[in-house]
């Protein structure tokens, strides 16, 4: 098993991506601490994982509260000896944008998306070091490698990128790797209002078909498998970088919508075929 005898702490561990990651990590041998504010949701997932033969525990944690971070780490140390993996998923997608940015809402967004992650890294890193080293996996967004209409969200994810690379630099000699997963549109609890509405889902499916190379939105499990790779020793020579999990959106979106709406590849193939036929004709004619 890829995480045998490892201890993992996942913030937002009962949300879509967190839930899928917690299940997969436990299946691969990790003792998983699922952290969040909802004890009811956390306990339900813990019961499910333990019933399936895994090892899971719930921790009450608000990522903006340093005292709760301290208590969570102390509890993990007492119960399991210390984490080897920290996965930071908790984030806010509150709409804070130009042309009028509400500074109070801006500060709230950054406190969750950036400072909350900073608190986690800084609090857990010494214990990860004591545990023999490990991996920090931060969940960003393609909004953090592009521009986005949701200005505050995009800015916070760009900041998370810088934070993660700095952590990789500083903690390398502690035996700690730090990387970022940049998801595209992933079907999770946050996107449920879109995917559960038949009209919106149809519109979204058309957008995915025209802007994503793989012609679909992502699943929480797509993120979980990328996280498992980064959490495991299979990625022992990877740090300070990103894995973009977006079905090919980032690499092709500016061109793909135009190509697919105008069937440009088929037209180019038809043009090439016509040229080939004409060349054969002229060759035989002479």
UniProtKB/TrEMBL annotation:
Its EC number is 1.1.1.-. The keyword Zinc does not apply. Keywords: Oxidoreductase. The keyword Oxidoreductase applies. It is an enzyme of class 1 (oxidoreductase). GO terms for molecular function: oxidoreductase activity, acting on the CH-OH group of donors, NAD or NADP as acceptor. InterPro entries: NAD(P)-bd_dom_sf, SDR_fam. Belongs to the short-chain dehydrogenases/reductases (SDR) family. PANTHER family: 3-OXOACYL-[ACYL-CARRIER-PROTEIN] REDUCTASE, SHORT-CHAIN DEHYDROGENASES/REDUCTASES FAMILY MEMBER. This is 2,5-dichloro-2,5-cyclohexadiene-1,4-diol dehydrogenase.
């Amino acid at each position: 098993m890829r995480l045998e005898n490892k201890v993992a702490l996942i913030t937002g561990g009962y949300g879509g991506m967190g839930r899928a990651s917690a299940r997969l990590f436990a299946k691969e041998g990790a003792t998983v601490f699922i952290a969040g504010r909802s004890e009811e949701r956390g306990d339900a997932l813990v019961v499910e994982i333990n019933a399936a033969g895994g090892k899971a525990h719930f921790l009450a944690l608000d990522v903006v509260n340093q005292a709760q971070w301290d208590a969570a780490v102390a509890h993990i140390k007492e119960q399991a000896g210390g984490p080897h993996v920290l996965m930071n998923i908790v984030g806010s997608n509150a709409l804070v944008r130009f042309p009028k940015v509400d500074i109070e809402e801006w500060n709230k967004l950054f406190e969750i998306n950036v400072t909350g992650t900073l608190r986690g890294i800084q609090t857990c890193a010494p214990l990860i070091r004591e545990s023999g080293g490990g991996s920090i996996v931060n969940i960003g967004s393609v909004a953090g490698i592009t521009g986005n209409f949701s200005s505050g969200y995009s800015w916070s994810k760009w900041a998370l990128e810088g934070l993660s690379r700095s952590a990789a630099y500083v903690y390398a000699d502690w035996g700690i790797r730090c990387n970022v997963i940049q998801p595209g549109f992933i079907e999770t609890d946050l996107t449920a209002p879109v995917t559960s509405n038949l009209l919106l889902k149809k519109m979204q499916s058309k957008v995915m078909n025209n802007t994503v190379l793989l012609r679909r939105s992502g699943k929480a499990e797509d993120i979980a498998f990328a996280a498992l790779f980064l959490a495991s020793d299979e990625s022992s020579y990877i740090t300070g970088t990103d894995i973009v999990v977006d079905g090919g959106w980032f690499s092709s979106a500016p061109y793909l919508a135009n190509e697919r709406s105008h069937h440009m590849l088929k037209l180019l193939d038809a043009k090439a075929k016509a040229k080939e036929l004409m060349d054969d004709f002229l060759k035989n004619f002479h």
